[in-house]
Predict the 3D structure of the following.
Amino acid sequence: MLKLLGASLIILAGTLCGMQLGGYLAHRPLQIRQLRTGLTLLETEIVYGSRSLSEALASISRRVGGEAARLFSQAAELLATEQEWSASECWHCAVHRIWPGTALKEPEKDVMLQLGFILGQSDREDQQKHIRLALANLEHEEACARDSQQRYEKMCRSLGVLSGVLLVILLY
Amino acid sequence: MGYDVNAIFQIAGIGIIVAMIHTVLKQSGKDDWAQWVTLIGFIIVLFMVASFINDLFQEIKRVFLFQ
Amino acid sequence: MDIIQIVGLGIVATVLSLVVKEQKPMFAFVLATVTGVIIFLFLIGKISDVIRVLEGIAMQANVNIVYLDTILKIIGIAYIAEFGAQVTRDAGQGAIASKIELAGKILILVLAIPILSVIVETIVQLLPS
């Protein structure tokens, strides 16, 4: 009886692991799309708006929603509270803080960090150009992420279940 | 039914599961991982079988009076 | 009934072996081998009892114990050789199977030679020269 319980627990654990890994692969394109939406809104704010960076980022985070919104809200908070830090430092700090909680990977992080260097530093056209560049890179990453997801999501889930069953049989 | 009849079911189960993992990995394109998993599964099974055959030969030696 | 258990086990193992054979023939071969081993290990208890009885009878009949030992060893060699040959033949390696059988025959002959020479000496002694 206890053996049966332990066996079903192991199989459940394996299945959940597989589903979690598959979930990461599935969420990545969605979150990249959220980042792109946020950056497009930021570009609009910088070119046409006249609010301070902190307010702009806060309103963007409210409109974007999802995991990526946390990046914008964290950056807005840091800009508002930490007076000695520059905009790029706040941006980088926000990126480093929220990144582990997302399904995003290194290439996107590099793009966002690059963007952070020019934020609030130069004039409107220059910042707009850089944001457009970041958007193009993110679009490419999103295509790669969708490709990965298609190929590996089902595989991860099946592998999770099968490994669970294999462990049960080995430990029988 | 002395001994460990479950060993038969264990080996059959491992065989089927390893075959399924092999197919899943091959369909996702990771052919070399598939080969590795099959090989490792076979080595594990081989360990079990080797210990069984060792027991068998020990028993035969004992019963048929080989010193 | 023991025979029913053994036959049941054999049938189940055969079915499993057929299922696995089309995916991974290696595992099917291993499965058949292990089934044979397990069935034999189950019987070993009974064989042991029979041999003890034979030993008792032999001691009562004042037969030299060496003869019984030799016979039992020959039976043991014969069984192991047949097991190995059948298993390798199952896997398709007929050549290896024949060599194993040959080895078994030669080893049995080696064990039997002392007894044969004793018989020949006895007969020669009985003959009036």
About this structure: Residues 6-63 of chain B form one domain. The longest helix of chain B spans residues 31-63. The interface with chain A takes residues 6, 9-10, 13-14, 17-18, 20-21, 24-25, 27-30, 44 of chain B (CB under 8 Å).
